[in-house]
Design brief:
Layout (H helix, E strand, L loop, with lengths): L10 H26 L4 H14 L3 H12 L2 H11 L5 H7 L16 H17 L18 E10 L2 E10 L1
Length: 168
C-alpha cells in the first residue's frame, strides 16, 4: 500500500475540486494584496500572471476586486498598515466594463395591497411625535410603549388579518 492513498473521485469531481481551489487561491491572494494597501504595478503583474495560470476571466477578476474593495476588514487593515487613500487604484481596477442595467419596479399580485398598507402606515407615522419630543425627563433616555393596531385588508374577496406595531 502506498501513501497517500487515492480517494474514490471521478475525473469530473477532481476537475470541480481543482477549479474551486484555483478560485479560492486567486481570491486569497487578491485579498492579501488589498489588505496590504495600494495596488502597485508589481501586484498588477502578479495578478495578471495568476489570472492566466489559473484561468480567471477578466469579469471574475473585477468581481473579486470589487469584493475585496468593499470588505471592511481589508479596508481597516490597509488603513492601519498603509495609511489612508489606498482604494483609488483598486476602485479603478474593479470597475465594470458594462454598467448594470436599471431594474424595473417589480409588479406582483400583492403590489396593490402592499402599497395600500405602506400608505396607511405612512399616515400613522405622520401623526407620531418627532423623536426629539419623545425623550424622557432626563433628556437622554427613551421610553417606548408598543400599541397594536389591527388592520384588515381585503384581497380577492378574502380578509387578511395584518397586525401593525407602532412605536410611540
Amino acid at each position: 500500500m502506498s501513501w497517500p492513498m487515492l480517494l474514490d473521485m471521478s475525473r469530473d469531481d477532481c476537475k470541480r475540486v481543482l477549479r474551486r481551489l484555483e478560485l479560492e487561491g486567486y481570491s486569497a491572494v487578491l485579498s492579501a494584496f488589498r489588505a496590504q494597501g495600494d495596488l502597485t504595478k508589481e501586484k498588477k503583474k502578479i495578478l495578471l500572471d495568476l489570472q492566466n495560470i489559473l484561468s480567471i476571466s477578466t469579469e471574475r477578476h473585477r468581481a473579486e476586486v470589487r469584493r475585496a474593495v468593499n470588505d471592511e476588514k481589508f479596508a481597516t487593515i490597509a488603513h492601519n498598515i498603509a495609511g489612508s487613500n489606498t482604494t483609488s487604484e483598486w476602485l479603478i481596477e474593479g470597475r465594470r466594463l458594462i454598467p448594470l442595467m436599471p431594474r424595473l419596479v417589480p409588479q406582483t399580485a400583492f403590489t396593490v395591497t402592499a402599497n395600500q398598507v405602506a400608505n396607511a402606515q405612512a399616515e400613522k407615522n405622520a401623526m407620531l411625535p418627532m423623536p426629539k419630543n419623545t425623550a424622557g425627563r432626563d433628556g437622554g433616555s427613551f421610553i417606548y410603549s408598543y400599541l397594536i393596531f389591527p388592520m384588515y385588508i381585503e384581497f380577492e374577496n378574502r380578509n387578511l388579518y395584518y397586525i401593525d406595531y407602532v412605536v410611540i
